[in-house]
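Standup notes
- DV: blocked on the single-chain target, sequence here:
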Amino acid sequence: MLKEFKEFVMRGNVLDLAVAVIIGGAFGKIITSFVNDVLMPPIGLLLGGVDFTNLFLALDGKTYDSLEAATAAGAATINYGVFINTVVDFLIVAFVIFLIIKAANPTKKKEEPAPPVEPTTKDCPYCFTTIAIQATRCPNCTSELK
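- DV (later): unblocked, structure below
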């Protein structure tokens, strides 16, 4: 069983998938930082100084200065600002993956079409029986072939 597991893990597809998951996790952290620390602050500034991480709705009906204050008070909240950040995060990751796939597609090796197969049989023009292509006489009707 251990030998089978080792063979399974050492197959190329499994190793490629493991590398992709690790790099994808690191890439996700970079994109999250980019969205939260670089992209959303200027957008919030353009929208009148809005901090998207502090956009929330307290379900207890009270008003809180920040999401941290609402969380510290134990209030249930709908964090739509964090959701907006996550959606922007996802869109950036999806767009980058689209660009990578679009760039990688032309480099894929295209399969050459199989060369046409030479026929090995023909039909007798007299009795329409299938015969070998090299035949000079039909074995069924004994006609001479051209």
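- Follow-up: Residues 9 and 15 are 7 Å apart (CA to CA).
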